[in-house]
Amino acid sequence: MRNTFDFSPLFRSSVGFDRLQRQLDSALKFSQANESYPPYNIEKAGDDAYRISIAVAGFSEEDLDVTVDDGTVTVTGKSQADDSGTYLHRGIARRAFERRFHLADHVKVNGAQLVNGLLEIDLVREIPEELKPRKIAIQSQKQPQMALDQKKAA
């Protein structure tokens, strides 16, 4: 069974869409891995604001790392094992993890905070002025002076 798709025929007549291909490949790998730990939410907090909330119960700020590289936010958690006690039931998973989130163009990480066992990563979309829509004034073309003089002479 083949696990990857060849998108090269789609990109024969296009330039600069290699990032799209990488995102499709990574999305396919992510769906195949079916990772569910730790659980997370992605919410829209405003017109150009987003928040990723990750349930990290049992992790401290020192155990977590958030990095941004090439449009990808990577969250890693490494917990110091606390095996000092004898557990009758151990339902709180504190295993190491790594989560990746691919950001759209012009989306920036605004900050991160650990609140009540949730790691909240705030994102904002900042579109540069030169890429925002702008109104172009239409100027009327004046008739050449020579053509007007010929009409008057006739």
Task: Describe what you observe in this structure.
The protein is of the alpha+beta class. The chain folds into 2 domains: 7-36, no CATH class; 37-83 and 91-128, Sandwich (Immunoglobulin-like). Helix content is 16%, strand content 31%. It has helices spanning 18-33, 145-153, and strands at 40-44, 49-55, 64-69, 72-77, 97-102, 107-115, 118-125. The strands form 2 sheets. The chain has a 4-stranded antiparallel beta sheet, with no helix packed on it. Strands 3-4-5 form a 3-stranded antiparallel beta sheet, with no helix packed on it. The longest helix has 16 residues, at 18-33. It starts with 17 loop residues before the first helix and ends with a helix.
How many domain modules?
2
Q: On the 0-100 scale, what is the average pLDDT? A: 80
Return the CATH topology of the largest domain: Immunoglobulin-like
Biggest sheet: strand arrangement:
1-2-7-6
Number of strands: 7
Estimated share of beta-strand residues: 25-35%
- Corresponding CATH architecture of the largest domain: Sandwich
Radius of gyration: 27 Å
The shape, in one word, is: elongated
For the report, how would you describe the main beta sheet?
4 strands, antiparallel
Q: What is the CATH first-level class name of the largest domain?
A: Mainly Beta
* Poorly predicted parts: none
**Order of SSEs, N→C?**
HEEEEEEEH
Q: Helical element count?
A: 2
